[in-house]
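Q: Please design a sequence for this.
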């Protein structure tokens, strides 16, 4: 190590064990110092011959580039300092004792054989010689260590207690039919005024304190051009309101859409998030394709033409996925739209290139975490691959969506939306709560896109399972819908539904109903059936 890295310093910390001192004095330590001198590495080794308090230990660990635990006995079960090192995000090289074998798996650290100093030296040199590899181990160690902090432990215990208290014995129910809900915009109208749709609700009452956002008005516009069961006069009226909000959201000075507006109609930012811009372009493409009213479709075409080239600079994977979905919709009605085709091809290739860094082989996803609206990423590839006639893109979409469906399936076989508590947990299976309607909608539409390219993949059943989540086929056997006005609660928590009804949730239910209605010709008789040991809910 010293030959490859002359400035390397190996710190050996801690007092000699009292039993060894009693039997041999400090002969071992003195012998090691003498050996270091003979080998010419005395300046590269520093002995700290004292008992180290925790605070000082953490200071040393913080200063280290690599932490080494070269225990020679397999019976060494655990190491407290190993846990501290992981928690501080330190690359670790260790012999394979029990704890190290478990916590350093999946490229979180490096294991070397017992009593093999040559292997240990090679790995130290390898890590010190490649900062990219070194930082990769550090990042994975830190992410894993987050699960060991006290706040996370408390959260896990709380979830276990809540699940144990809320658990109910399995109950058998006969085969029942689930009728698809007819799209109903009463809850959408309740949350809207002449400006647009409010973001949040306090129970079912619009919360004016949080005003409006272009995200929800884009979703609302897509609903109005797709909800063909709603009277045309109603759809025309509200399409105009949501379209007007989007038009006013365009900022020509920086060629981006704004997002948040206060109740007194003041824009709160000059530029919205990338995701909100991508979603708005998506809504414009869908409106171009689906609007029954010619004037609305033409308006959408003009604004799409204005926005598509500036928004080709988007970088966020989800923003790109949303923009892909909008471009596919636009190309379905204007096949020679050059800007839409260029954006589609570039963004599809960009998603194909993800993930940018190394991830465990079992983690078949675009990013190192599962976040929100996950299914939109494979859906974008499925629709892009079909439009571009590229089988490699289609196959990547199927592969990643199949993997996501595995993550979103409970042990009982029901759809389980990725819980929001999962966000920011790299490389870890999703937590079950809080589950949000947005994930069920995205999975419904992605599954229908998968069915369009793979008729034998069981994708219609995946769409049904995600839709039934709204109706009560979920972890708590609890409907998210409000039957008196077809509202939708904001999510599923360990203690039951979040009884607020915000725009995102209301729109998710109605858009999912529209999507399932479009697919009814592919389902048996238009009804969804399922055998389960959980109670079914008639809707």
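A: Design:
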């Amino acid at each position: 190590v010293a030959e490859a890295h002359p400035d390397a310093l190996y710190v050996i910390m801690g007092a000699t064990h009292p039993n060894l001192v009693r039997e041999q004095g400090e002969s071992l330590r003195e012998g090691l110092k003498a050996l270091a001198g003979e080998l010419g590495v005395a300046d590269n080794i520093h002995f700290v011959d004292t008992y180290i308090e925790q605070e000082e230990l953490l200071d040393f660990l913080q200063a280290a580039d690599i932490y080494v635990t070269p225990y020679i006995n397999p019976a060494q079960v655990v190491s407290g300092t190993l846990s501290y090192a992981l928690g501080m995000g330190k690359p670790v090289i260790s012999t394979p004792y029990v704890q190290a074998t478990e916590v350093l798996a999946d490229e979180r650290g490096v294991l070397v054989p017992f009593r093999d100093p040559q292997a240990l030296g090679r790995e130290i040199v390898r890590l010190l010689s490649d900062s990219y590899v070194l930082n990769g181990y550090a990042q994975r160690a830190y992410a894993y260590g987050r699960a060991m902090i006290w706040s996370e432990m408390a959260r896990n215990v709380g979830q276990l207690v809540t699940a144990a208290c809320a658990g109910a014995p399995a109950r058998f129910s006969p085969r029942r039919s689930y009728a698809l809900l007819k799209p109903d915009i009463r809850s959408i109208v309740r949350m809207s005024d002449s400006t647009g749709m409010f973001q949040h609700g306090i129970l079912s009452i619009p919360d004016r304190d949080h005003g409006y956002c272009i995200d929800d008005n884009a979703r609302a516009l897509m609903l109005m051009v797709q909800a063909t069961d709603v009277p045309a006069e109603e759809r025309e009226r509200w399409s105009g309101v949501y379209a007007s909000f989007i038009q006013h959201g365009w900022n020509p000075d920086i060629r981006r859409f704004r997002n948040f507006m206060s109740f007194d109609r003041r824009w709160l930012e000059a530029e919205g998030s990338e995701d909100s811009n991508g979603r708005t372009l998506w809504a414009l493409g869908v409106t171009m394709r689906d609007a029954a009213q010619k004037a609305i479709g033409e308006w959408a075409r003009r604004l799409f033409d204005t926005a598509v080239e500036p928004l080709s600079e988007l970088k966020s994977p989800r923003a790109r996925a949303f923009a892909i979905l909008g471009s596919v919709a636009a190309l379905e009605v204007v096949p020679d739209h050059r800007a839409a085709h260029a954006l589609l091809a570039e963004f599809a290739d960009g998603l194909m290139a993800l993930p940018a860094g190394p991830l465990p082989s079992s983690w078949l996803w675009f990013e190192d975490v599962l976040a929100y609206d996950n299914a939109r990423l494979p859906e974008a590839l499925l629709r892009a691959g079909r439009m571009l006639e590229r089988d490699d893109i289609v196959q990547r979409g199927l592969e990643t969506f199949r993997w996501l469906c595995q993550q979103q399936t409970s042990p009982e076989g029901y759809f389980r939306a990725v819980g929001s508590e999962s966000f920011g947990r790299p490389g870890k299976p999703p937590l079950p709560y809080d589950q949000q309607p947005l994930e069920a909608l995205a999975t419904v539409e992605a599954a229908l896109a998968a069915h369009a390219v793979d008729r034998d993949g069981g994708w219609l059943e995946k769409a049904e399972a995600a839709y039934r989540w709204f109706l009560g086929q979920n972890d708590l056997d609890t409907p998210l819908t409000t039957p008196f006005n077809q509202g939708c609660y904001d999510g599923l928590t360990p203690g039951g539904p979040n009884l607020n009804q915000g725009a995102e949730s209301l729109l998710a239910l109605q858009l999912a109903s529209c999507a399932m209605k479009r697919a009814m010709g592919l389902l048996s008789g238009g009804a969804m059936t399922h055998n389960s040991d959980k109670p079914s809910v008639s809707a």
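Q: Thanks. Anything notable?
A: The domain at 10-153 is CATH 3.40.50.2000 (Rossmann fold). The chain has 20 helices and 17 strands.
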